[in-house]
């Protein structure tokens, strides 16, 4: 009886833990070659500009490598410079906890199109980014990846300028203008009141 429980526990542990789809970024092979339309240092505007992403299997790997790839997830990811001091964007090796890639560009079957065009969504904040492509198995676990930057994530990065960043100066101008209006309105009443007093 006790041994049954022990074995069941071991199987469960094995299932959820070490044996079953580790889910660690460091365990993934970089078998995909990803390419984005963005240029190093380019600045894109969220809500306006588009990114086109393409990917293929790296020809150094046999075509059979991709046999188990069923799905592809294309993600927009924060570059290290935009993760500094921001725990909510932190890179974790455990992919279920990793916060590097928070925006989904595409989620398609592996055999479908290998070109995806994406309008940078309006909620993408101002930051420096790169694009990563994950290949998933039939149960949705990451098996391999490719990305538009090097392993250290320092090359070929691009910037996105968020909506809020663009409208700040306009908001300040509008704020100043309304403050000015209120002041001049009071000033106007004050002058009128004085005039009225003098007239009496
Ligand atoms: C990536 O795309 C650019 C322009 O679309 C092209 O010039 C370049 O050769 C591509 N690189 C790869 C590795 O596909
Ligand atoms: C393809 O993979 C090989 C071996 O890992 C690597 O040396 C090469 O740089 C990769 N090619 C591209 C275009 O990423």
Walk me through this protein's architecture.
With 200 residues, the chain is α+β, with helices and mostly antiparallel strands. It has a domain at 24-161: Immunoglobulins (Immunoglobulin-like, Sandwich). The chain is built from two helices and nine strands. The chain has helices at residues 2-16, 163-199; strands at residues 32-36, 43-45, 50-57, 71-78, 101-109, 115-119, 127-136, 142-147, 158-161. The strands form two sheets. Strands 2, 4, 5, 7, 8 and 9 form a six-stranded mixed β-sheet that branches. The chain has a three-stranded antiparallel β-sheet with strand order 1-3-6, with no helix packed on it. It is elongated, with a radius of gyration of 27 Å. 22% of the residues are buried. Mean pLDDT is 85; it is low at 13-21. It binds 2-acetamido-2-deoxy-beta-D-glucopyranose (NAG) (2 copies). One 2-acetamido-2-deoxy-beta-D-glucopyranose binds next to loops. Belongs to the NAR2 family. InterPro entries: Transptr_NO3_Nar2. The chain crosses the membrane at residues 172-191. One of its GO terms (molecular function) is nitrate transmembrane transporter activity. Involved in nitrate transport.
Topology diagram in text:
Blueprint: H1 2-16, E1 32-36, E2 43-45, E3 50-57, E4 71-78, E5 101-109, E6 115-119, E7 127-136, E8 142-147, E9 158-161, H2 163-199
Bound molecules: 2-acetamido-2-deoxy-beta-D-glucopyranose (2 copies).
GO cellular component, one term: plasma membrane
Signal peptide: 1-21
Family: Belongs to the NAR2 family.
Describe, in short, the structure shown:
With 200 residues, the chain is of the alpha+beta class. 26% of the residues lie in helices and 29% in strands. It has a domain at 24-161: Immunoglobulin-like (Sandwich).
């Amino acid at each position: 009886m006790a041994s049954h429980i022990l074995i069941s526990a071991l199987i469960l542990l094995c299932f959820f833990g070490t044996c079953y789809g580790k889910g660690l970024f460091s365990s993934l092979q970089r078998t995909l070659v990803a390419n984005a339309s963005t240029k190093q240092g380019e600045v894109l505007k969220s809500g306006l500009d588009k990114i086109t992403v393409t990917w293929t299997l790296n020809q150094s790997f046999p075509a059979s490598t991709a046999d188990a790839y069923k799905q592809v997830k294309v993600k927009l990811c924060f570059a290290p410079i935009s993760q500094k001091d921001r725990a909510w964007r932190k890179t974790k090796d455990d992919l279920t906890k990793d916060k590097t890639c928070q925006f989904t560009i595409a989620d398609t079957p592996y055999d479908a199109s290998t070109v995806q065009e994406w309008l940078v969504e309006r909620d993408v904040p101002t930051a420096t980014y790169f694009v990563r492509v994950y290949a998933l198995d039939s149960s949705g676990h990451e098996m391999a990846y490719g990305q538009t930057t090097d392993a250290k994530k320092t090359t070929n990065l691009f910037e996105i300028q968020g909506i809020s960043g663009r409208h700040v100066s306009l908001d300040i101008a509008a704020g100043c203008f309304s403050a000015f209006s209120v002041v001049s309105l009071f000033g106007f009443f004050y002058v009128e009141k004085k005039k009225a007093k003098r007239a009496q």
